[in-house]
Amino acid sequence: MSIVSATNPHRVEDLERALENVEGARHVAMQVLQLTDDPYADARKVAVAIEQDPIFVTQVLRVANSAAFGMARQVKATQIAVAILGFSTVRSMAVMAVSGLSDLKQPAPAGFWEHSASTAAACTLIARRYGISPSDGFAIGLIHDLGIPMLNAVDPVTYGDITKDGADNRALAEREAEEFGMSHAKAAEIVLTNWQFPELLISAIGNHHREEPLETPESMLLFAGDALAHLALEESDGKDKARLKQLGFKSGDISRLVGEIGGKSGGILAGLLR
Description:
Structural class: mainly alpha
CATH superfamily: Hypothetical protein af1432
CATH architecture: Orthogonal Bundle
Strand content: under 5%
Order of helices and strands: HHHHHHHHHHHHHHHH
Mean pLDDT: 85
Oligomer: single chain
Shape: globular
CATH class: Mainly Alpha
Number of strands: 0
Largest sheet: none
Radius of gyration: 18 Å
Helix content: 55-70%
Low-confidence stretches: none
Number of helices: 16
């Protein structure tokens, strides 16, 4: 594991152990992870696994029925919900469960879920612009900040201290590395690599706080989706519109998308937080 020197070596060791031992928090979610990585699995098999956990069933149905996926009729069958969401989204939801991030006994930092849901909504809206399916866009937006609650869980007081002054992305990453030995983006990269997520998705998430995106559709999608989410939540550092314009978004498009994100993210958030 690649880390940098940190002010508290014990904190780094705790984080390393946490990242290496992200497993088995929920047996059903583990099964879903395995099935969605199986080329011979289908929506029926994944649905059968999900149906062993009523909480997971509820989350999947709520997200499938949210405005983000625009279904005209209510989806009541788990198998249909899995087919609508796609394996990439279901897999991302399973990672959240396995990591314990949807367990309210270990709450994530304030604003984490709102930003994750808004970025998922944004990436769903603009995914086809980059040749990516809305389902895959949803997945990358949902889990892009996976590392934040992991760092927070190791030492909530320290993590609260380094985030309370609203540092910009680059400064935050530097402060995270100082205190924990790595940024939250790097922590997410490690976990997703362990779970054998697609390399381009991992790379996009691991580098999503660069000044400019990588030259891949996944990186450009996440870069844009993250910026749109900041604007929608009114937490922008003042540079997000410029970043979006560099990616070819016009002012009118930005305003329209920001307006649409709010309507979609609320349903996603309700589906994820039981």
